[in-house]
Amino acid sequence: MNKLMKVPLWLPYSGMIIGFVFLIIVASMPNTALLIAGLILLHVSAWIVGAKFILCGFGFFSSVLSSK
Questions:
Q1: CA-to-CA distance for 32 and 1, rounded, in angstroms?
Q2: Residue 62: CB atoms within 10 Å
Q3: Is residue 2 part of a domain?
Q4: Is the distance from CB of 49 to CB of 16 less than 8 angstroms?
């Protein structure tokens, strides 16, 4: 969990952007390898951002509860 929180947030966001670019390229020029790479990159990046969001939310919620 600590390793996930140390990942800079720009890394998964840039992965999502690159994944969307791959999908746009595949729409104009069909290529199965680019399609698979784009979908995997987009999926993994979205899961990392979602996990970081949930972990930050739990951390914030627990710090608010423990401050009283």
A1: 34
A2: 10
A3: no
A4: yes
Q: How many domains would you assign to the chain? A: 1
Kindly state whether residue 42 falls inside one of the protein's structural domains: yes
Q: Which residue has the tokens 């979205």?
A: 46
Tokens of 64: 């608010």
| Average pLDDT of the segment spanning 53-64 | 77
With both helix axes pointing from N to C terminus, report the angle between 10-28 and 32-66 in degrees, rounded to the nearest 10.
Answer: 150
pLDDT (tens digit per residue) in 7-26: 888 999 999 999 999 999 99
pTM over 0.85: no
> What is the DSSP track for 33-56?
HHHHHHHHHHHHHHHHHHHHHHHH
